[in-house]
Amino acid sequence: MAEVFIRRLSRWQAEQQREAVADVYVEAYRRIYGEEFRDRAAFLETFAEDVRRPGFDMVVGGAAGGSAAAYGYGFLLDRDGEWWRGLRQDVPWDAEELTVAGRVFVIAELMVLPAFRRGAVATRLVERLLARANAALVTVRVDPANEPAVAVLRSWGWTRLGELSVPVAGLPGVAAGTGSGVGVAPGAASDIWSRVLTS
Asked: Of the given ranges (36-40, 107-111, 191-195), which has the lowest mean pLDDT?
């Protein structure tokens, strides 16, 4: 497998690369044949909103020749947001406190092209993304049927907070860069996973 170099993108660079990011998104998630255009358009709309969010940060994995092999990005959750609402289980007492303090970072997308999977690219993307996150807690929403994503989160030391019973605005879902190619569709069942970040 070719080596992948990870680097950070500024907000401006992320906006400039939006078409390349969308191309990787479509290839990485390969959902339903014939729906690529719709998936791509929906992603670009969401991406345009996400880039403007406070605390937005993005990393890219570049392959030889300069082509993108992977992207990962996230942002700080809104201080007035209630991302934990709809969880069927009790939420740790500090989730609300950390949200109000602006200390919860969400991984919004983590996508790795199929040819570059199983080479720790997703792990390296997450490590680089979280290295500069000004947060105490990181969270992500994942389809519980996505066994590879769940296995990756466990191996990274993440904890399942619980099942989300209703969709929550502002809390995106990802496939965690695994080989399943299945993200979290709107309204689909999903679990919230988190990890405490050490300073």
From this structure: 36-40
Please enumerate in sequence order all residues whose Cβ is within 8 A of that of 37, keeping only pairs 6 or more positions apart, or say none. none
Burial letters for 47-56: b for 16+ Cβ neighbours within 10 Å, e otherwise? beebbebebb
Q: At which residue do the structure tokens 């993440």 appear?
A: 158
Q: How many CA atoms lie within 13 A of 6 on its CB side?
A: 21
Work out the average pLDDT over 105-127.
Answer: 91
Model-level pTM? 0.84
Nearest to 192 by CA among 176, 178, 180: 176
Q: What is the pLDDT of residues 136-170, one digit of tens each?
A: 999 998 888 888 889 999 999 999 988 876 655 55
Under CATH, what is the fold of the domain 5-196? Aminopeptidase (3.40.630)
**Which of 150-169 are b and which e, b meaning 16 or more Cβ less than 10 Å from the residue's Cβ?**
bebbeebebeebeebeeebe
Give CA–CA dist 47/14, Å, rounded: 9
CA distance 72 to 50: 12
